[in-house]
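Why does residue order matter? Because the sequence determines the fold. Keep that principle in mind as you read this record.
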Amino acid sequence: MVKRIFVPTESYRDWQRLLAKPERHWKAGYSAMTLARAWEEPADNSFPPEVAAALRSSQASELTNLSLLLALPEYQVALPGGDRPSQTDVLAIARGDDGLVVIAVEGKVDEPFGPTVGEKHAERSQGVDERLQFLSDCLEIPEPIAESVRAYASHRIRTPGRRTVLCGRCCHARSLLQPIGQVV
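Structure:
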């Protein structure tokens, strides 16, 4: 069962316990710790500079003058086809000129995105097929996800989108966004 009660953090170290595999993913120079530090660093509770720059560069009107209201690290949603909830690095809820915006943020630090969707399908896992079909249906994608797309990227593109849609509906957000970026 996915919990929906969140406790504020005191430092970036509080993020470690939220990881699916804390002992494996919590290392200096890797994405989990780097993202935690980036999000905890701004003294004014704003977006990390890299995320703010990505939002500004989109030039989308719904991303004008965003104020961060809430950032949920390692946000979880149960999806069919898996044995544990799916997680996005940060689910952010912001207020902009056009209303509420829900943003799913994923980050990588010199890490590969893994096998392609075609390679995952070759494993013949019912769970993979079920999850990809569910995500395609939920997001109203008319065609199957291309076999050449990296499975990790498709999962994270689609999954935060689904989580973003679910959270966005709950918050009555007018805009839903999912930037994916490279953490430096």
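Residues 20-114+153-182 form one domain.
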